[in-house]
Known about the structure:
Blueprint (H helix, E strand, L loop, with lengths): L8 H22 L5 H7 L48 E2 L3 E2 L1 E2 L5 E2 L15 H6 L37 E9 L21 E5 L10 E6 L4 E7 L18 E4 L20 E6 L19 E3 L5 E3 L10 E6 L5 H6 L3 E7 L31 E9 L21 E4 L2 E2 L2 E4 L3 E8 L8 E4 L8 E6 L2 E9 L10 E7 L8 E6 L1 E5 L2 E5 L2 H6 L8 E8 L2 E3 L7 E3 L23 E8 L25 E4 L4 E2 L5 E6 L5 E8 L7 E4 L4 E6 L12 E2 L1 E3 L5 E7 L5 E7 L2 H5 L3 E6 L14 E5 L2 E5 L2 E2 L12 H6 L7
Parallel strand pairs: 1-7, 5-8, 7-14, 15-19, 18-27, 30-34, 33-41, 33-44
Antiparallel strand pairs: 2-5, 3-4, 5-6, 8-10, 9-13, 11-12, 13-14, 15-16, 16-17, 19-23, 20-24, 21-22, 21-23, 24-27, 25-26, 28-29, 30-31, 31-32, 34-39, 35-38, 35-40, 36-37, 36-39, 40-41, 42-43
Amino acid sequence: MYIFTNASRIRQREAQLARDNRAEIIRALNQGQVTRRELLRWGIFTAGGYLACKNGLSPFAKSAYAAVPTGTPRTPLFGIQKFTQPMHRLNHLKPLPMTRTAEGHAAFPASLGERPAKRLSYHTEFSADPTNRDFINPLTYRGPIEGRPPGEVFAHQRWDEFFPKAGYIMRLGQVAQGSGGYFHDNFPLQHPDSCWTYASGRGGECGLPPFLIKGRYGEPIVTRIYNDLPTDRAKNNGFGRNETQLHFHNAHNGAESDGAANVHHFPGTFYDYRWSTALARRDKINTQAGDRRASGPDDNTGLFNVAGDFRELQGSMWAHDHRFFFTAENVYKGNLGAINYYSGPDRGNEELSDGVNLRLPSGKLLGWGNTDFDVNLIFSDCACDAGGQLYFDIFDTDGMLGDVPLVNFGFAPFFEVLPRKYRFRALNACMSRFLKLGLADAKGNPVPITFIANDGNLVVSPIRMPALPVQGMGERYDFIVDFSGFKIGDRIKVVNHVRHEDGRRLKEEFSLSKALKGTPDDPVVGPMLELRIVGAVESVDVPGVILRSTDPDKSQVPATLTEQIPIVTPVRTRMVEFGKSGSGDSRGPNGCTPDCGEYVSFPWTIRINGESSHSMNANRISLLIPKAGEVEHWTYKNGGGGWDHPIHLHFEEGITMLRNGQTPGPTENLQRKDVWRLGESGSVTFQIQFGEFGGSYVNHCHNTVHEDFAMLARVQLLTGIAGSPQSAVTPTPNPTPDGVYFTTPEILPEGAPKGWKNTQTQVQAQLEAPKP
């Protein structure tokens, strides 16, 4: 995909011209200077809606100077070398205390002047009286102040049970110009619309690294997101959509707070997400909260118990934009962050011994949530144009690869560690790149890794291994490394072993020795992070405190971390196939639901139980779950064609049973996960059980380019809670700048299980807001 650094000047000019021409097409489309129909007529798009493979246009067209593709220009590094800057720790946000008002609302501290968060959206008041300026978007004077749809369907489910105790206020906006370069302080400053990132509070400056929120079981959270992006869609520096919905991947939340229910909101509005911190199976298991293992840490050294199954405790999670059809572009611009959940067993205090705490490496200065020795690592890649501005190629529907390796959005940084045990939480936040990470000492020998969690779920027993498994986009691997055998001054590299040629799949897996040398045709192969053994570091938990190599390491890695959830006979089975076998029917006669870009074609489809294939439509239900608590067995299948797909299921984790019909490896076998890499023409079977909340969720490929083009399907969960709107199929929200209106969804025949009757009258009764 990327040309070699030693390519001739004319070859580099050819590649740059093709990139410039693609960018010019996008600008013309964004500004309404040309239509997709005209581009088809001129031969710039094919009859299928794809970019024509022509020299001077496509990076995959034959070069005029060699019998190889034109390729893409490499990112200029302006003389910057690897390991010349420290790794940024994530931006830890501090929670705000919430209080209950007489009306039952959740109030932020009075000094902030914020409206309270409510069970019902402020859109409800706007719909009742659209002329009341108290509830009108203060930036555009069109539509409601809150983007969450009105009425009971999008009210926060089980509000009183999970009343918010902690709050966060964030704004999504243009990157601050004084915050340094995108991935290195010596790199050119980014245009404000190259990066869209978060700030804490209304007045803060948006910038990188991404945020970190520490949550704990039993302390529900309300997170208010203000959209402060430009109102003009064309002001995006070539890619990205100025509308957002924040998906908390993969928390146990109601659909109204999942951030992927077709509820994006517009500049000038806010959206209140209530993150329940609910433990799954609270309605079925440990309902009286008598098991101390099902618990969260209090403000001292104790615990408060919660209902639910301690075997389903979650830990390492993240949040990212999920605006349908524009997820890849928006996340790539910086719209993401990490969220760590803490519990009685996984407390984040390595010295506290109470019979429940596992005492994993973390630190001891705080009662819970220590991160001195518990480190979030967000691995990603990016590409920039000749001027150093972030670049995204929206025409490549197979996947977007960068040529610059990033850790916590810094270019190949270094990180200082003491000679003791550390826990690392590794997230693959690339758009289309698979990773395989290993550690190498100065002699090139592998440094052993102890694998403890997969997608935020503790494994039953720690697994010793020489390197991590291949990691798909969205997957999280927690592992422990013991540096006590190294001496001060030693350096260890974190190395990516796998090579890509394009965004379809990984091409080749290298040995550690070969990966250390790198390869000229994929610059992200090789070392991505350098770990430096030092004698002292400053605490991030309590700044000013110096931590030293002579301090005793009292952390532990117990032989057993949790208990196994058994596999049982399912109520039903389902087959979900991902591929390119359908017609790509997202675009109907009236456009897309929701609206999409003019340049979009839809090659990716999903097929359920062998029926017709479909690409994403938010008003179409592909999988309906009729009753909370029923156990199902699902098989995800790759339809073939030379692609790989990491598939993500929202809201619940599944217990991995089979890979390609066989027992999977130890890091997957009977482990709980929410993203499964399928492999080329492969399959994965898992056990799933939904419960507690209901509404509209999704199931999709986490190669977010595949997701945007449009390998994504709607899943409808029915809670069975009497009187709840989610006990029936919920209507589809359709956001507009003037407010949300609802439509009745289509339920595909394969979506409804045998014996279930479609009650469209129930759906129709919930259509509460008229079309603006």
